[in-house]
Every structure is written in C-alpha cells, then in structure tokens.
Amino acid sequence: MYKVYECSPSVTAHTKAYMTINSFEGGGDGGAPAKCDNRYYSDDTPVVALSTGWYEGGSRCLKNVTVRAPSGRSVEAMVVDECDSSVGCGKDEDYQPPCANNVVDASKAVWKALGVPPRDWGDLDITWSDA
After folding, report:
1. Does residue 4 lie within any of the structural domains?
2. Tell me, what's the pLDDT at 105?
3. Beta bridge partners of 15
4. Rounded CA gap, 6 and 46, in Å?
5. pLDDT digits over 101-117, tens only?
6. Which residues have C-beta within 8 Å of that of residue 37, sequence separation ≥ 6?
7. Is residue 84 a part of any domain in this protein?
C-alpha cells in the first residue's frame, strides 16, 4: 500500500520541494497528456507537474512558477500537469505510484536551465514559488 496525500506544504517565496524528472511528450514516461490542457509538451519546453496540494485543483494551470536550484540558478516553468499524490498505479499515471506531497516533476528543459549535469538528473532538492 502506498502513502497518499490530499495536501502539500504551504507555498512561500522559497517553498522547499523535491524535483524529479519527467517527459511530457507523447509516448514519454508521463503517461497521459497534461491535465491542464490535454496536450503533450516537448522535453525542450520548461514545464512542470505539481503535487496534488500545490496543483490546487488546477488553479496554477498554465501559470509560471520559478524553480531554484541549490546552485542559485533559477528558471521559470509553466505548470501543465498534476503529479497526483492521491492516486497512482493506473493507466493515466503510467502505472507509477502516487507522488509525494512535495514534488515538482520537471521536464528536461528545466534541468538543463538549472545547469544540472545530465548524469545527475533524477532527484534534486529545490525551492520554488509562484512567478
């Protein structure tokens, strides 16, 4: 049994989060099209999915957030999807377990913009805020 969450930590000017990598392309590891607009996005586009609580029922859809790496580099990325913390393991989630409540699931473009070497892509402690 997996832990599930309906809420996330409060959003501040420097909200602590755990960044993971995801492909939002058709046939990518993200599964279904983005929840905000039912589209797929190129890995070269800076987009993110937020944990259920931060996604706020879609209120952040198609809005930008600022993602900051420990190095101090930052990038603006558009919220296009929910990293569902309340369900998982189904077809729409590409059979992946539920997200934790503090995840920013980011495209390769976000990782590149933050200057993270590809060998280190996957998991990174970051901060983020509404742009």
Report:
1. no
2. 96
3. 128
4. 26
5. 999 999 999 999 999 99
6. 61, 62, 80
7. yes
